[in-house]
Automatic annotation (TrEMBL):
Major location category of this protein: cytoplasm
InterPro entries named among the record's database cross-references: COA6_fun, COX6B-like, CX6/COA6-like_sf
Superkingdom in the source lineage: Eukaryota
Protein name: Cytochrome c oxidase assembly factor 6
Similarity annotation: Belongs to the cytochrome c oxidase subunit 6B family.
Amino acid sequence: MGLFGLTQSEDDKRATEVRTGAVAPLRAERQKCWMTRDGYFACLDANNIVDALKDEKKAASACKIESAAFERDCATQWVTYFKKWRVQDIQKKARLKELEAQGANRLDVQTDFKPR
């Protein structure tokens, strides 16, 4: 550590670079991000919060520790993306459940293309 602790360790510097998007996260860093994201989402679920962006104050007070870990371990753009993705995923699942209740049939769709 430098004079009076003013310099960052290499790990802290790397974490800052990942959060800001200056470097791409490594596999272990991505896995750590996903793990803290899942913990944050579990906290939101336990507190009946769907949209952490819309209900920011409620989410911040209910999931303070999980939110801090999520924001520490993930790139800033990822945090926003995952929060938006969560809302869309919940809405999609609810819509599919409605359609199935109305008698819609689920179709298995292949999304990769095979050469002929």
